[in-house]
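Troubleshooting entry. The earlier prediction with adenosine monophosphate gave an output that would not parse, so I re-checked the input for stray whitespace and re-submitted. Clean input:
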Amino acid sequence: MISEEEARRKILDAVHPLPERRISLLSGLDCFSGEDYFARLPLPNFDNSAMDGYAVVATSCGTGVRLRVIGEQPAGLDRQLRVSPGEAIRIFTGAPLPAGADAIVMQEDVTRDGAEIVLNVDVDPGEFVRKRGCDLAKGQKILAKGERIRPATTALLASQGFAEVTIGGEVDMAIISTGDELVKPGEKIKQGQIYESNSVLLQGLAQRCGASVRSVEYCPDDRDSLTEALKRGIQHDVLIISGGMSVGEHDMVQSTLRSLGAKIDIWRVAIKPGKPFLFGRVDKCAVFGLPGNPVSAFITFLQFVRPAILKMMGAINLDLPAAPARLVVDLINDGDRPHYVRGKLEDGKFSPVGRQESHALFGLSQSNALLRVAVGESLKAGEIVDLQIWDG
Ligand code: AMP
Ligand code: MG
């Protein structure tokens, strides 16, 4: 049995970023940037008006002053107008600032009188003018390689004229659920059988990481079926197998993988739940064997599979989001493995929910955060603890 840290290090050493791709901006949403991006243009790209109003020379303005309106500058094409003291140019939001102008008076602050306006306010230089480059300078870094592309990131790239973005590689994944007792939801169940739920759990988690799940199979606990399913599974970048990872007579995943030439790097990790976790490689395929108990599959996915997928997709941050919270109960770990306690973070407080056993799917379904309690650690109610947030 190895430590979680060692398992994570071994896995991350074994997997590598996949080849980058260029795609349309919107398709890049939630992917990781494949390169550093720098501003091609300053933002704004020219001095312009922040309001509908009048472009003026501030020093010639003041409450009660009359100005002659000599032209109009809409947003769009620059009409190359010039304004002098005593004059005003009708202007609209986003329109280029006429030469000579250094301020905009809002239209609400003037009284229009034919070809003239009367100012109802004093005017300071720079008022309602958006200066070229005040938001972003040309050449400034706007997106780092490995950073996640969010809606505002796509907008910023678009504002720079980029129609496409380079993103990290696509992770092509297969999932195999093993177990003679498993029945597909929607079908009839007999005494002793259970509905299979890990494949949807793992598909959901994988999709949230951005992996492309291309194949999902059920497989009974017999060596021939398993051999055939594994042969198909290892054609993908990542194969996740659920169940059959322990030491019972029906747990044949490890030996079948070996018979297909797999190199098993990890089997059994000091983590609760999830001890029988396995990681190996066959050719270019990274193989993750997760315990069949749903909570074990969930925890080992988040701790070991997720960071590997993210690394393959080119991400820099491989950690789950963290948040501090006030613990509501005492918690002690007197076992020999770090314990991931499932619970609910609400209003800054964390309380464990449901049964803390590896089959207890209902409790898991009510939780949104994990608290890792180290071996020998004793936490007291009221303490501030660091959580891993897996939802929200
Ligand atoms: P195993 O790891 O195969 O020994 O399975 C451990 C426990 O998880 C058993 O109670 C199984 O019935 C259950 N289990 C295994 N695979 C699944 C699955 N795909 N969906 C739901 N429960 C499962
Ligand atoms: Mg089984």
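This one parsed fine. The longest helix spans residues 294-312.
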